[in-house]
Amino acid sequence: MENFEELIASETPVLVDFYATWCGPCRTMHPILEELKELKGNKLRIVKIDVDKHEELATKERIQSIPTLMLYWKGELLWRQSGVVTIAQLKEIIEKHV
User: What is the pTM of this model?
Assistant: First the structure.
């Protein structure tokens, strides 16, 4: 797997989902992200990062609550929000920023 800096430096926008398997709201986000993946296809990359398996990265990115979603494009953080986000909100955010 590529490192985080390489991942977010992509020419394709990257939506990062910091989550944990035990987190209820994170499980709520899963079908929403799957639907977004179908809608956006190869125009958006969605990456899920388990905070329990990648504690160092979660600490570095100051993840204090999960799920935390972060939208990157060409290495730049465009948007960040914690909590469940609807498909409509995500589509609007992506269209606004990218």
Answer: 0.94
